[in-house]
Amino acid sequence: MSAREKIAYLRGLIEGQNLSENAGLSKFHEALLGALDSLAEEIDEISEAQDDLREYVDDLEDEVADMHSEYDPDLVDERYEIDDDDDDDEEEDEKYENTTCQACGREFSYQPDAYDEDEDLLCPHCGQPFKQ
Asked: Whole-model pTM?
């Protein structure tokens, strides 16, 4: 039974009772049924949105599958190929040294080639400058 069907059933039960002598209880039931109707409407909207999303994802999966089936690794443009040899050279150029800040006493690493010899280092923890 759907939420709307359950609400309709409750509405029938409430309307079947003779509540004319108790107006407060009648107002409560109407407010309760109104809130339930609003919730059921929101659930319907969410279900529709979820169905739309499910359909969109299915379409995307189909497109990706089509692209995958058409993919030929021999036809890949050279600009997308990865040259692992270049990465090794960059790692050798990037040398780091560890040092301790004289102001706060905390250790950190820095790249000496990024600084001039007369340039002060700034501690990343306390921000105080000091010579290398």
From this structure: 0.43
Nearest partner of 39 among 78, 65, 7, 1, judged by Cα: 7
Give the CB-side neighbour count of residue 10, counting CA atoms within 13 A. 16
Q: Please list the pLDDT of the chain residue by residue as tens digits (132 residues).
A: 888 888 888 888 888 876 656 777 778 888 888 999 999 999 999 999 999 999 999 999 999 888 877 776 666 555 555 555 555 555 556 788 888 888 888 888 878 787 777 777 788 888 888 765
* Helix, strand, coil % in the chain, rounded to nearest 5: 60, 10, 30
Radius of gyration of the chain (CA): 35
Beta bridge partners of 100: 107
Instruction: Give the distance from CA 79 to its chain's centroid.
Output: 31
Phi, psi dihedral angles at 103 (to 5 degrees):
-80, -50
Q: Which two tokens stand for residue 1?
A: 């039974």
